[in-house]
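Researcher: I've been going back and forth with a colleague about how glycerophosphocholine cholinephosphodiesterase might be arranged in three dimensions. Neither of us has a model we trust, so I'd like an independent prediction. The organism is Gallus gallus, in case that matters for your notes. Sequence below.
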Amino acid sequence: MGCSTILVFLTLLSFASAHRKLLLFLLDGFRFDYIDDAELESLPGFRDIIGMGVKVDYMTPDFPSLSYPNYYTLMTGRHCEVHQMIGNYMWDPKTNVSFDIGVNKESLLPLWWNGSEPLWVTMTKEKKNVFMYYWPGCEVEILGVRPSYCREYFSVPTDQNFADAISDALEALRNGSAEMAAVYYERIDVEGHHYGPWSEQRKSALKELDKAMSNMITQIKNKGLQHDVNVLLFSDHGMTDISWTDKVIELKNYINMSDTIQMKDRGPVVSLWPVPEKHTEQGQAALLGERHREEGGLAERLAWLRQRADGDEGHLPRIWARFQIQLPCASHQIRGCLQRHVQPGRSAATAKQWLLVQGGVHAEEHGCPRATLHTERLCAGTDSALALLAAVIPKQCQSVLPAT
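Model: Here is an independent structure prediction for glycerophosphocholine cholinephosphodiesterase. You can compare it with whatever you and your colleague have in mind.
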């Protein structure tokens, strides 16, 4: 897991409007190259959107390149160690409760979500109405605030659920019930994980998604929303093919589990809480072994993360263990397994995101030609990619990211 993602902005007009409403799509697990030039030949919906809009070549996910951390990075504009949504599985040592990829009731506790303010909370505080459909966390009270409407997530929303959500979101934007609507789509991720990123099942899911995009464009025109709505589509991560049999490391075979209090997550990153006497450089080396410790491009960043965990506790792990290629674990039943050979740094080609935007912001006038945007740019200060495009909150829309 942890591959390139997408970001696309569909532009219908050649002038900018400071009062447009915003329709967001989070397309889970959507690799940046699922809609490259060759693939677009058979995807008329995405082809039309890109033809009318702005497509960023790719974005690099924040570390770690997992779903929940990047859901929140995109919506808060903060790095994961700041907003503290640092994994799909987390543990809070103070309360001894766990976050298990959003499926257990404890995942809805505000303690996991209060580390930073997401865009929908900012908008709600600004007296703007936000309607959210299957969006992870929309049912949570964050910093004392909930969106105006939340259609809660369940596993897994169908294509018909998604189509209905688009229709309902557009109607809410048309009739003035909402200034922003946000819709989550999961099937691309599910089929990719089950069958592989280039499987027929994943491609079939993309065909259905493309039909929904074509229908969305038709509805926007039929409802007369061409001049009133910006549309932003993005993903959290991509994924890559793996060999299950020889590319998995199960940590229980390499470390003494009695030296740990807790171990969480699986895949590219595993979070460890060692017993106190092991929480030293020497203890980490003894626990994991030198070859299992973070090295390379993110060494300084992870050292800072460990220092932050020392300083203000919270639910940040004491140790993040990571290897050198982006490969998930062998079994859904086994936690604490690690991939081998994760490339250091954040620029591996298979670790990119995707962004597509349609709306009233003219790309050339605002310095946003088709270009590469890195997460560092998207996370500068309190601005996220979404805040830059949320024209309904002018104070968060004053700057436009320069091309790299």
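Researcher: What would you highlight for our discussion?
Model: I'd start with this: The chain is about 30% helix and 15% strand. After that, consider the following. The chain has two domains: 5-90+113-238+352-396, 248-339.
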